[in-house]
Amino acid sequence: MGDSIWGRKHDIENARREKMKELMNEYDKTVYYPALKALREECVATYGEHQKTTYHDNGFGWEWWYCGKCGASHSENQYNKVEEDDDAEG
Question: What does each C-alpha distance from 70 to 45, 52, 74 come to in angstroms?
Fold first, then answer.
């Protein structure tokens, strides 16, 4: 990234981030993600549905919310979606 202090710092941090990702990859696939999936399924089985928290809106057409119990995110709406028919009419 160059000879600057900032560039070298950036390279060091990127190398660390990539190594951490590499080291955690197997654990994430075999332990973390399956456990998280099971927890979210248990959340629905226990409460009947996820507990909706505050809605979020990014201002570009997407709305979503997170479950207050298990943290699962749910996309609620894409309200600025361009329909194929709308685009054809020009």
Answer: 12, 11, 12
pLDDT digits (tens, 9 = 90+) for 1-58: 557 999 999 999 999 999 999 999 999 999 999 999 999 999 999 999 988 887 888 8
Quick one: pLDDT at residue 90?
46
Domain extents for the chain? 1-49, 50-90
Do the Cβ atoms of 80 and 57 come closer than 8 Å? no
1, 6, 31, 51 from 19: Cα distances, Å: 18, 20, 19, 36
CA distances from 18 to 24, 33, 42, 43, 87 (A): 10, 19, 32, 33, 41
Residue 53 contacts residue 68 (beta carbons within 8 Å): yes
Q: What SS3 class is residue 82?
A: coil
